[in-house]
Amino acid sequence: MNQFLPELQEFTKDPKIAYFSMEIGIANNIPTYSGGLGVLAGDTIKSGADLKLPMAAVTLLSKKGYFTQEIDERGRQTEMPTLWEPSKQMTLLPAKVYVQIEGRDVAVQPWLYIVKSLTGGSIPVFFLDTDIAENSPDDREITSSLYGGDHVYRLKQEIVLGIAGVRMLYELGFEIKKYHMNEGHASFLTLELLLRYKRPIEDVWDERLVWDVDRVKNICVFTTHTPVEAGHDKFSYDLILRVMGELIPLNVLKELGGQDNLNMTLLALNLSEFVNGVAKKHRDVSKNMFPGYEISAITNGVHSYTWTCDSLKRLYDKYLPGWANEPELFVRVDRIPEEELWAAHIEAKKVLIDFVNSETKAGMDYDTLTIGFARRATAYKRPDLIFSDIDRLERIASGKIQLVYSGKAHPKDDHGKWLIEKIHVIKERLKGKIKIAYLKNYDMEKALKLVSGVDIWLNTPLRPHEASGTSGMKAAHNGVINFSVLDGWWIEGHIEGFTGWAIGQSPTETTVANDVDAMDQRDADDLYNKLEAIIIPMYRGDRHTWIRMMQNAIGKNAYYFNSHRMMRRYVTEAYIR
Ligand SMILES: *Cc1c(COP(=O)(O)O)cnc(C)c1O
Predict the structure, then answer these.
(1) Ligand 1: distance of its center to the CA of 477 in Å?
(2) How far apart are CA 339 and CA 337, in angstroms?
(3) What distance in angstroms lies between residue 65's CA and the mean position of ligand 1's atoms?
(4) Is the CB of 470 under 6 A from ligand 1?
(5) 8-301+566-575 and 347-554: identical CATH topology
(6) Are the C-beta atoms of residues 557 and 473 closer than 8 Å to each other?
(7) Are 164 and 108 in contact (CB under 8 A)?
(8) Residue 204 reports pLDDT greater than 90
(9) Helix or strand or coil: residue 107?
(10) How many angstroms separate the CA atoms of 80 and 60, rounded?
(11) Distance between CA 552 and CA 216 in Å, rounded?
(12) Is the CB of residue 23 below 6 angstroms from any atom belonging to ligand 1?
């Protein structure tokens, strides 16, 4: 019997794959995520449970969440802690491990949440918590705010996630056959494994032989998510020594994590047998960033059942029974009569428009072509690209489109905050011509309303910054057509005029690739051209072709870009090799 909880017995009797992620978005009332990375982690675990994969997951409790966003009438964002009560969702286990931080022993306790699937599969998720009476007031805050605080705070969080995470799994009686690091935040787990696998030899001529790198490598899997150099967490060795101490000798650590400073991505690369990017293009970009490493591509997917709205669920149940656990059945989407698909879409659109009108003064209507844009508000996502030439937009689209926005800017991302203000200014400027709404406090619930209730899902990232992107996959699950820059997953999902529309240059063209202004110009131009010549006329005059494209979004995009397919690939390519 498991000493901590009889319920755990079921999980500790067989070896597991341990999935580590700084953020996990499983449900709207567990606010321990900030965006795509966390929601992907949640979808990973849900598909893992549906497919009855032997997994366990580790993350941080983030007791104050990411943050709750307020926006005033001028578009200025303020942040408040998200208050939630873990005990209403999960169980605090009477297990405890310690990690050394700044020379202190910091206690860490786990909360257990079990993701249960209707198929009978289930996966335990451990939310690590340092808010324990015996810890100092500062240490009690380590697991409070997701991506909050400074560099030192982040380092402490990553120590808890990686090192305390592995210790916790041992303490709870788990046998782990693979460790999967979802992004570099979890890389410190490799150091704890090196310590555990240390060879008991003395007086070796080369002390590096004590460290069994190959054995650690053999059981580690790493998924990188960051296509730009600046996005990788790096810490100076001075800071590492001060906060973490010399867990393993500095010269060994430098060989694994980089000579100048500790690069969490490099550490994971050097200690993982299988490494992947989250789309084919992202794999190529990552290989250029880290020459000499073997990097595969497993393109992301989304959890079909989670990301399909009620009206479409009913339709799929009727025509494609079993779809939720076998998304391949979307290949038979053409069984669904056009009028029924359209009616289900209109039902979802009404839910969204009613919600927008209850939250804002936008006064939107059900008939107008509705374009959605929602994701983290940050510069590379270019939420303002569609406003590059406001007069032109007005000429093309006045009275013909309405726009729904949502998204939070990181508290320290001034440019992201400025973008939210800019959209508010333009909203006033276009009043009476193009209705624009900005929904505050974007979360998973609003995401589902948005990706299912708009007609077009717009995505305009600056290449190659969008490693994959997943919201467009959610849109496809609801028959919502993507209109997007060719970056990340869309390079693989896009068939022009069939599954959706591209914006700007093709991925193989390099004419303007290095000039950001030229790229903005080219992309905006293409966006306007297609909106004017193809999208608005088709929506208003050729409903039949429009619905065919909706079907293709489902039959070609949702069919492939789901997390069931993704997890089957992780199993065959990463977990059991
Ligand atoms: C899916 C999702 C995202 C990711 O959106 P991208 O457009 O892929 O960046 C971000 N936030 C929430 C709440 C989501 O559900």
Answers:
(1) 14
(2) 6
(3) 16
(4) yes
(5) yes
(6) yes
(7) yes
(8) no
(9) strand
(10) 19
(11) 44
(12) no
Q: Separation of 328 CA from ligand 1 center, angstroms?
A: 23
Give, using CA atoms, the residue closest to atom 15 of ligand 1.
444
DSSP 3-state of 13: coil
Per-residue confidence band for 463, with pLDDT thresholds at 50, 70 and 90: very high
What local confidence, expressed as pLDDT, does residue 100 receive? 98
Contact 21, 59 (CB under 8 A): yes
Answer yes or no: is the C-beta of 75 below 6 A from any ligand 1 atom.
no
- C-alpha distances in Å from residue 149, one per residue of 69, 153, 307, 385: 17, 6, 32, 31
Higher pLDDT, 201 or 368: 368
442 close to ligand 1 (CB < 6 Angstrom): yes
For the entire predicted model, the pTM comes to 0.97
Substitution site in 32, 33, 39 for ligand 1 pocket (most atoms within 8 Å of beta carbon): 39
Q: 441 CB less than 6 Å from ligand 1?
A: no
| Domain 347-554 part of CATH 3.30.450.30 | no
pLDDT (tens digit per residue) in 113-162: 999 999 999 999 999 999 999 999 999 999 999 999 999 999 999 999 99
Q: Residue 262 corresponds to which amino acid?
A: L
Q: Is 471 in the pocket of ligand 1 (CB under 6 A)?
A: yes
Is-contact 566 301, C-beta < 8 A? yes
Q: Where are the domains of the chain?
A: 8-301+566-575, 347-554
Pocket test of ligand 1: the residue of 26, 375, 484 to mutate, having most ligand atoms within 8 Å of its CB, is: 375
Percent of the chain with pLDDT over 90: 92
Give residue-wise pLDDT tens across range 503-557.
999 887 765 556 888 899 999 999 999 999 999 999 999 999 999 999 999 999 9
Q: How confident is the model at residue 1 (pLDDT cuts 50, 70, 90)?
A: low
Take residue 181 and report the two structure tokens written for it.
């690091």
CA of 465 from ligand 1 middle (Å) equals 15
CATH tag for 8-301+566-575 (out of 3.40.50.2000, 3.40.630.40, 1.20.1250.20, 3.40.50.300): 3.40.50.2000
Ligand 1 proximity of 570 Cβ (cutoff 6 Å): no
| Percent of residues, the chain, with pLDDT higher than 70 | 98
**Which residue is listed with tokens 């509705």?**
370
